[in-house]
Amino acid sequence: RDQTTRCTSELNPRIDYRIIPGEKPTLIVHQELGMAPGTSNVVLGTVQDITQQRATERRIRELAYTDKLTGLASRAYFYKHTEDIIRAARRRHERFALLYLDLDGFKDINDSLGHDMGDELLRTVSQRLQSSLRDTDFIARLSGDEFCILVDNVRDQYDAAEVAERCLDETNRPVWLGKQQVRARCSIGIAYYPEDGTDLQSLLKAADSAMYAAKEEGRHRYAFYRPELTQRVERRLQIEQELRLAIERDELILHYQPQVELSSGRLAGVEALVRWKHPDMGLIPPGEFIAVAERIGIISSLGEWVLNKACEQLSRWLAMGLPELRMAVNISPLHFRNPALLDTVTRVLETTGIPPELLELEVTESVVQTTGNDFETFERLRELGVKIAIDDFGTGYSSLASLRALPIDCLKIDRLFISDMLDDGRAAVLLGTIVNVAHALGHVVVAEGVEEVAQLQVLQGIECDIVQGFFFSRPVPAKALPEIVRDGFPGVAAKGQENHDVVAAETPTSGAGSRTPSS
Ligand code: C2E
Ligand code: CA
Ligand code: CA
Predict the structure, then answer these.
(1) Nearest protein Cα to ligand 1, atom 20
(2) Which of 247, 273, 299, 415 to mutate to test the pocket of ligand 1 (most atoms within 8 A of CB)?
């Protein structure tokens, strides 16, 4: 403007500027500041300088305080804001809740559909979460697929639970990623100020351990923090610190779960499943340490150990005169991508002398997606004579169509499918289709997680080839296997008695000697 303007400072309402076009602005100091009232010419730059500086500062603040990908508040902003909220809550004696939200299986989506699609999913989920919250709630993206939500002024625990429920629903609405429709799922941990923590770090830790508990309790759910969870955090830390030594100290062991040929009831093979016999903590299941091994970069040596032991064991059984069994070994996607795997398998086959076709490597769908159309590892492994199975089929994002090009031998249908089968008629129909397609492609179909005779019947109806599950046997130590071959599965006859046409249940090991059924 071309006339003199007076405006008040943002910082101190008792200081005014006088701005005369073309001149440096001057400060007007008021009497009540305890300074000599009057005008000062020295303090400020030109108007342009000031606005520019302000704009820059605002921009810096925005950059630091917003998450570039999603537009939500950033981690830095979250920290600052939470500390403000804590101070206010302390003053006013109020409670608030901190929700820690982590997407389930986000890594799989990233691995199988690519990072761009992963980013797209994060953006969509962020928008949905934000719009489902009340104005007073605050949401930030902490990193990757982790979000935090502050729910202010909660009366009881239902307030936060309600927000958590809404988040579960919002994330689970279908999202189109390219041509693929996915439904994200998430696990949420809830901690309260002040009961579960009175400062930022302890609150975050509490909400984080509650989130882990939600994952352990089955995912896509929420859990409240409880004090005993802290022990679990310590356990996780201990596992992380000692896992490297476990291999050196020879603390890992393998158990073997029988796989039964459905048409004959014959024992077709076993799956090797690793456990850690910890000197203080007892038997630790793989669910607690495989992901750790992947994270700390020792999964290939762990996988090599498993391959060695499993094949040695098979060669011992064969030497004892047991019928030929297939030995299925789980290979982590990271290990599968390691070029050294081929040499390892070659060497293990040489040193143990087992027929290569008795070794089956189980890899999950995500391996298939990341290798794209480059099936070299698959093909080179099959040239060695070993079999390849796709594990946990049906949980990932690969379609039946993508199976066609795959050089594999066997499809293992995930346990979730089997457990849904009886309640949901559509699941059984879909399963039938999968079996047909797999057979048309020449693959053997294995159903895992079979626990009930009714599931066995459905699987028989749709001509599934092999079943594995607690119905027949839990994973057992090596020394239990000869007995199973000789006497069958303890307890199965009783379970099967209610139903006489379940052949496998009654004569579990008859007709031993032949191999994988050809389909
Ligand atoms: P997975 O490959 O899907 O293995 C099957 C898991 O389901 C095993 O759990 C087995 O005990 C369990 N299971 C079998 N039948 C039933 C049933 O009827 N009902 C129920 N509820 N569960 C059943 P486990 O031994 O705890 O292994 C968990 C996962 O850890 C495995 O899932 C596999 O992904 C991984 N894992 C195990 N051993 C190894 C290994 O040597 N290397 C690698 N990379 N991963 C392994
Ligand atoms: Ca498996
Ligand atoms: Ca599986």
Answers:
(1) 449
(2) 273
